Amino acid sequence: MSPVPGRSWRAAALLLPAGAAAAHIGPAATWLPGVRLPLFPGLAGTGDRRHIALTFDDGPDPASTPGFLDALDRLGVRATFFVVGEHVVRHPAVVRETVRRGHELGVHGWHHDRPWRPAPARDAEEVARTVRAVRDLTGERPRWYRPPYGILTTSRLRAARRAGLRTVLWSAWGRDWTADATPASVRARVAADLRGGGTVLLHDSDRYAFPGCRHATLGALPAIVRDCRAAGLTVGPLREHGPSSAAARPADAGPPDAHPADAGSPGTEPTDAEPPDAEAD
Fold first, then answer.
1. 119, 197, 226, 263: least surrounded by Cβ within 10 Å?
2. Strand, coil or helix: what is 84?
3. Between vectors from CA 131 to CA 172 and to CA 206, what angle results, nearest 5°?
4. What is the DSSP letter of 89?
5. pTM for this prediction
6. Between 3.40.50.1000, 3.40.50.300, 3.40.50.1370, 3.20.20.370, what CATH number should domain 13-260 receive?
7. What is the pLDDT of residue 190?
């Protein structure tokens, strides 16, 4: 679903002491394109300027993901799918098929929730749990993290780093989760922000969005790929996206070497160290 918060950051901050709220919610400012794109290009998924990274959120979904896999096969394109852990374990066949067809998996959290209250131990455990679920099913360890709704917090950024993941948001999206989304509107929204080196956000499931809106995304997909190719750009997963032109590091209470976003550029290798389990809050 849309990365649009359900509550305002101001309302969320009222639930916590001022200092704690700022430390926890501060990185969520990177949701704003005016903050993310110029200041944190690595976090925005900026990579090789001859390439577009195509990404999908909210799967795996047996009702819709296979249709996207078939469409991508017809287009000759591979992509990165950011998966929700609780659905990974419910639909293992879809997960395995996604990887079998040459696509890449990233972590989209264990649940698709909004992180208004600090929960560092829970965040660490749930990100690590999703990494393990993907690795155990596919034999491949994910490299990327994108939080639900695109809302970053200090604890989720640290959880991603602890799990050896690079945090990547997007530079263009289709607003394909809305009731009025159509193939034409999704294509137009992507095209408005499409630049070489960009990362495109779409959704292969509508379980967190308006029912049926996935059909608009599926209908727009051939035109989006065609637009990229007409501009001389190749389309593929984040693993082929190359290094960012600059490092990204949103504000954080911790020191630079304890923050994941300074290593958040596509194309950099995560650590293979297995994170220790953490107790949920």
1. 226
2. coil
3. 45
4. H
5. 0.81
6. 3.20.20.370
7. 98
